[in-house]
Amino acid sequence: MNTWLKACLAGSLLITPAAFAQSADDDDPYAYPEQEAERAQEKAQKEDDDAYDRRRKLVDETDEFREAAETDNNEGFQRMARLDDPNLGVAVELVAGLLMVDSARGDFSDNKPGLGVRATWEFGRSLFTENETLREGLFADLRWIYSSLSDGTDFIKGDTRLHYFTLAPAWLFRFGDSPFGLFLQAGGGLAYQNTGITIGEDETKVNGLKPVIQYGLGIRGRPALSRTLNLTFRLEAMGLRRGYANDIFIGGSAGVGF
């Protein structure tokens, strides 16, 4: 009996140091409830600070973009007008209307049909790519208009053919953001007059070349047909001053622009 008790006591003494040693090797400190609450509060505060920094950075970037878009100068901000509207600003139109030729007989005018063709270059698109007003407002026309007059009797008759060649810049006042606007125009060129006087069977030709001043106003439109093609048209009243004569053209035109 004593031998059995001694054996049990010796065994319990051997097991006890191993248990103490295992407990001593555990390096994790004991966390008190107050420390756990403090750590949770610090973690939540850090997450809030990080979220605030992200929001502030996003707001700063938005404000910088807005300031760049609304600034009056273009420093550091290049307009992409050519990408928004890639048209070259070139148009060709057929012109038709009433040409009121200053009458040599003392009447107000000799009214005859006038026909012609016009080529338009919106040179503001090439020269002022960063200024929207100048880019959309400036253009120039190269124009030819033809008309003829005939008067007399069976024995004496006169036939006159008039050709006007003009080059004139213009300024367009757009109606808001629409493709329509009012334009004012002034320029110059040459007027070629070919006159044939027939007396009986004989005809005498007289040719003349005079400088001409062109001026006028009208309404111009260029609605888009596609991204790179536009319908162009005008209604206009135009004066053609050649020497002492002042001819008036009232008409319109239509064509395409690209």
UniProtKB/TrEMBL annotation:
Origin superkingdom: Bacteria
Cited InterPro entries: OMP/PagP_B-barrel (IPR011250)
UniProt KW keywords: Signal
Signal peptide: 1-21
Region named Disordered: 24-52
Coiled-coil positions: none
Chain intervals with Basic and acidic residues compositional bias: 36-46
Name of the featured protein: Outer membrane beta-barrel domain-containing protein
